[in-house]
Each structure stands twice: as C-alpha cells, then as structure tokens.
Amino acid sequence: MKQNYNKPLPKRLLDKFAPTFSEGGKLSWLHSFYEAMETFFYVPTDVTKKGSHVRDCNDMKRTMFMVIIALVPTILFGMWNIGFQRIGGADFSIWQNFWFGFWKMLPSILVTYIVGLSIECAFAQIRKEEVNEGFFVSGILIPLIIPIGTPLWMTGLATAFAVVIGKEIFGGTGMNIFNPALLARLFIFFSYTSSISGESVWFTDGRTGATALGELANTGQLPEGFSMLDAFVGNIAGSIGETSTLCILLGAIVLLATGTASWRTMISVFVGGLVMGGIFNLLAPAAPVTPTEHYLALPAWQHLLLGGFAFGAVFMATDPVTSAQTNAGKCIVGFMIGALAILVRVFNTGYPEGMMLAIIFMNALAPVVDHYVVQANIKRRNRRAKKTVNA
Amino acid sequence: MSKVIKLKKGLDIKLVGEAEKSVIDLPIGERYAVSPLAFEGVVPKLLVAEGDKVAAGDALFYDKAHPEVMFTSPVSGTVSAVRRGEKRKLLAIEVAADAQQTYKQFTVKLDKASREQVVAALLESGLWASIIQRPYGIIANAQDTPKAIFVSGFDSAPLAPDMNIALKDDVEAVKAGFAALKVLCPNVHLGLEAGKESVLEAVEGVEKHYFKGAHPAGNVGVQIHHIDPINKGEKVWTVAIQNVAIIGRLFLEGKVNMVKTYAVTGSQVMHPQYVRGLVGSSLADVLTPTRIKPQSGGSKFRIIEGNVLTGRNAGANGFMSLYSSQVTVIPEGGELELIGWLAPRLNKLSVSRTYFSWLMPKKKYDLRTGLNGGVRPFVVTGLYEKYLPMDIYPMYLFKAIMAGDLEKMENLGIYEIIEEDVALCEFVDPSKQELQALVRDGINLMIKEM
Lengths: 391, 450
Known about the structure:
The complex is a heterodimer.
Chain A: H1 9-21, H2 31-41, H3 60-85, H4 94-127, H5 134-145, H6 152-164, H7 180-191, H8 212-219, H9 228-233, H10 245-257, H11 263-283, H12 291-296, H13 300-305, H14 309-316, H15 327-347, H16 355-390
Chain B: E1 4-6, E2 20-25, E3 31-34, E4 44-46, E5 53-54, E6 59-63, E7 70-72, E8 77-84, E9 90-97, H1 115-125, E10 131-134, E11 138-139, E12 149-152, H2 163-166, H3 171-184, E13 188-193, E14 207-212, H4 220-227, E15 236-239, H5 241-253, E16 259-265, E17 273-278, H6 283-286, E18 301-305, E19 312-313, E20 326-331, H7 394-403, H8 406-412, H9 423-428, H10 435-449
Parallel strand pairs in B: 1-14, 2-17, 12-13, 12-15, 13-14, 16-20
Antiparallel strand pairs in B: 3-9, 4-6, 5-8, 6-7, 8-9, 10-11, 10-15, 16-17, 18-19, 18-20
C-alpha cells in the first residue's frame, strides 16, 4: 500500500489498518475498537447532513474528559494516602508514599478499564454503534470507591456486573437507571460481605483499625485524636477517592466552572445533608448516652466531611444520566440524597456509609420526580387551553 | 410603546461575513426555478410541460391534496426543463426568462374585495403558499379561519438580513400586505425588536409586540408562544415579512411581483452585501455580484439557501425559494484534527465552558460544517432548555417523538414548535443528534395520525 508521508503518523497507521478492521477484513469483529481508537486520535471528519450546518465544537468525549480532569487531584492524593495510611507510612517521603499507592492502585485501574471497555466494545460491535465515552468516567470511579484491599478478580467481576446489568441491558450509556460505578461498589458489598467485612479492608499491609464512620456507627463518637482538619485534607482511612474533601472541592470547582456537572444537584445534596444533620442536632439529648444519641449530636457540618458524602455529592449524584433531568427535579433529588445519606448513617448502624445507598435509591426515584415536574408543565398547558376555550 | 417581552434564553452565533448595508439590483437572469421540495408536505401535480410559455403568475403546479393551492412562475418565459429525481419525483421546474417580462393580471382591489375574493386571488397567484399554518409549519388551509396571524418583523438568526435594509423600498407594499392579512383575519400581530428603529413602525392597524433577547427572539414561533400560545385545536397563520410585501404588491400592482432582498453572507463570500432579485433566482445569479472567495488546495465550501442553522444545502446549481431571504457560504468541514477533544481549540465556538469562547463574547467565528464529534444518545441534561425560550421541556418532547407517543407529544408542546425553533438545541447538542429532522418526523406523524 502506498504511504502518504504528508499525513501525521497516527493517521498513517489508522489508514494502514483501516481495511483490516472494516467489514470483510480479518479483524472486522474488532471494528468498534478500531473506531474508538480513530475517534480518540482524530475528531470525526463527518460533516453535517441534515439540520443545522454548523455545530458547537463540544462533544461527548470532551464532556466526559472534564470529569476525569476534575478527578485528578483526588486520584493523586488518594494514591499518596494509600502509602501514608500503611504501617509506618508517616515515616516515608511524599514520593515514596505516592509510588507505593500508585503501584497498589494501578492494577485495579487496569482491571476495571480492560474488563469494562472490552464489554463496551463488544456491545457496541453487536449494536453497530460507536463505543460510548461514559465508561471513561465509570472506569476510574470504580477503583476510587471500592476498598483498597479488594481482590482484583472481585473488582473485575463487579465491573462486569455494573457494565452489563447496570448499563448495557438498558441500552448503554444514556439509557441506564443506576450509576454504574456505584453498582459495582454495591455488588461487592452485598455479594462478598463476609470476605471484605471488618475494617481492615480500608488499609494495606495488615494494618487494622476502624474508619471514622465505622467508629461512629459503633460508639456514636469519633475516634480519639481524630481531627476535622484531617478529614478535610484527607489523610485518614477510607476509600481512595473519598477521604480528601479538599481535593474533591477542587474537582467540584472544575466541574462547576466548566458547567459539566449541575450546580443544582451538587449544592442541594450538601443542603440536604446539612438540614438533616441539623434536625438530628436538635433531636439530640443534652447529655447523650447511647451511641445513637451521641451520633445525633455530631455537628451537621462534620457529616459533610466524613465518609463518601462529598465524593458522592460531587461525582456521583451529578451523573446527568441517572440523576433527575429537569431543573426542579435536580434540586429535589439532590436534597433527598443528602438527607437520606445522613439518615441511613445515623440510624442504620449495621451499615456505616449511607451515601451509596442514598444515591442508588434516588437514582431509582429520579424518573418519578421528573415525571411530576413534567406533569406540572402539561397541566399548565392544558389549563391554558381550557382558559382560552372558556374566554 | 407597549410592553417589552424580554427573553433570557437563546444564543447569538457571531459569524464573519456580515452583509454590508448596500443593495445591488439583479438584472433578469437566464433561468429561474420553482422546486416543490421547498414546500413542506406538498405533493405536486404538474400543470405545464417543457416548451410551454408562461407569464409571471401563471401556475406551474398545484398541491394534490389541496388542488386550489397553486404554485406559480415568478417570471415570464418558456418552461425549459422539468427536473425529476428517483421514482420520477418532481424536483424543479425551470423557466427560461423573457427579456421583456409579462405579467398575469389580477384585478382585485383590497378596499372593495370580500374575504373570499382576497383568498381566491392569493390562491390563484401562488402567494397562498407564503401563508404558513401553525401547528405543523405547513401551507395554510384556505377553508380555515385562524385565531390570529403572526408576522415577525425581524430576523435574529446568524448573519440574518436587517429588515430595515431589506424592506426600505417596500414600506407601501408591506402596508398593503398587512391590510390584505387583516381581511383574512382581523387579529394580526407584528413582532418587532425592542430598542431598535424599524421601518415597520409605519404599519398601522396591527398589534405590535416588542422583543428583546438573543436568537431565536426573531422566530415567529417563539413570539407566538409569548403573545398568545397555540393550544390544542387552534390554528394560527404566519407569514414571513418579505412575503407580506409580495402579497401587498399583488393588490397594489395587480400582478405577481416576487422581488425580495437577500442578504448574501458568510466567510467565503468576497463582498457580502444585499442583493435584490426575484424568488426563483439561481444561486449562480445571486452570487454573481458578491462573488465567492477563490478556494485554495481543494478546500470546499457549502452554499446554504438561508442561514447556517435552518437553511438548505442548495449547491451552486440551486435556486432561491419563496421562504428564504438569505444566502450563506461557509467552508466545508472534515479537516483532520489531532486529539481535538482534548486540545484547547481557541478558534472554535462552543457554549460549553470546557472551551474558552465564553471569554471572548464579541469574537466572530468562521465556522465550518464539521459535526465536531460522534453521534451519541442523550446524556447531558438541562442544556437544550437554555436555548429554547418557551415553557417546554425539549428533551422530554424529543423522547416522546422518538417513542412515537402522540398523546405525550401533544401534551409536551409539539403544536408550538417547528424545526427552526429547536435549531439552537441541535447546534449546542454534544450528542450531535439531528433534532430538527426529529421534530419534522414528529410533526409528520401527528399529521398522519390526527
């Protein structure tokens, strides 16, 4: 085949292998993968055929990629924190801790991407559609929210479950009801409760101890020496992504400044959490005795810094597909997520973290909320019609 | 001045290639054409054959479903070609123009005519086709009496013509046109741009409304929604402002004089300015005085009859239809762009703040026809709403259309929109869907089933 050396290298390679991957070629069953590579390197050269002749230059790839950029501080910090939380981690340098965490986390990132993208490609091939970008985000979210000690086979299985049952059977990205990354975590928690139970899974190298939420669930009080500043900065035990509220806030700024995530959802989750926490503070007796009474007295703002609350609010609740789709719905659903998360935390002591359940639950209810918002619009329209008839 | 209706939603797409404020009169060209494809939902029945002589205003074809609606020749001359496509589909009827124009005479005078006579004159002259019914955006039914007639007095689309220039010699014709519309329905509304002098202030006897805001503030559908929205079972009519002038001339001059002023715009036009010529003019003629920039190294351009959002890809062999008042020539896209989804792309326009165009609100862009991404299902929410200034949930309406759910479509406002109203939603859509075509499919389904 004649090579055109005027073209840049990736284009030459893509052109060279195009026949192999197209219909009739040896690897035509990998066409969706080839197409994904092609659109990764080059903006599709398609021109408009119907309708508007010019189009905005934003596309799904860029939208999804913004979420990854927003996750970068959290990922980097999380890697460092893995190293820092190991036995004697405080004695190592920042770089040593970071590399330790990097090598701990890399396998699970690779496993989620390989498993998830293979399934995505297979489904895209069957449907004769392009591979969707949605999994770029899910694939990095999953390692960030599962315990660091999760065996790789479990990570892979959970990813496969999330992609197939959570997404593809509904028709793929854009059609799913539940947040795929949260489904992966849910899968692990309910399928392998015994093998990852106990508190040790949050740590590496055999160190044991309770996370702040675990301790709260047991005693209603924070562990001794636990500082809220640590919870904000994030050098505490927990899922890789969830500990540093500071890094999550940096991500939130990226998401809100670029308009990638809905500020309505994000803010109403925090408001919901504060309101519910505030109600509990009012209910708390002056001299708490039982763990629940102690837990009720935990200042509302501290709830927002603990566990997966902030991470869920910023990166999970704002998923445009599984959250509410109307503006009013976003406010309602966001508020409910925040409120429910705190409710589950305080009253379901068998299960320390309420955020995941709250989001999954509201994912299921979001279409109902939207239905009533849209129904109000329909009612307005019908009332208007009636008024004109009577006039 | 009456109350100003302020629209907060919308977007002005700023493009290079705005028309200079001078108007060039086109001489009579060689060939003119009328294409049935420009008329939504019309099944044409041919009335002429190649070689027939016609005067300006003589019928070329009629609508099979509404035989009273004629479509007439804008010029006098000889039918030179009847162009057909696959399955003998009628594409265009071309007329070679006489050097000396002759006109079919119409004798109806507005001050003495009854409504029936005015309707009959419009039907016979081919100007009835300029009256568009909402819902559905199809040619009005001559048996109906509408709730009201709406005319938008300004165009807010990208690079759209300034009606003060387009209509500066047509004020009397416009007045007569509005007088004719008032015979059809006494309730006539005219939408004007707030805070701007307009030659249309001279029009009397109509209800004027003032709109302030970005595109689509000039879309008549948006104006209807804010003045007196269309409810189920109601019909309103709309007429493009330049076609009001053509209707006026029928009664003033007693002949079909389909002259219009076109803004010839776009980055690839060498001398963008206004051109005055007949409906049916060939794009080659329209583009003769303005010229197209010489193209280097195999780069291509697209000639759009209309604006970049809603126009038709007419090609160099195309003709101006009754409904457009603009020509836009922009470069074709399809250039190679390495990892564009990641690059900063400073010279590209986006409403998304993942790009930087929001920092340069005054900058004018030279947009190409690239799709700029792959087609995806709906993912992003809350975006379309910002570009449709109506009390409508666009995504729910789109999904109802996709599902073919007639009751939902009706409930969610299909009667209030046509393609042009969702053109901006289509422009901003990161999922790159064809929303205007979708809306037309939905409307066609409604027409078929209701």
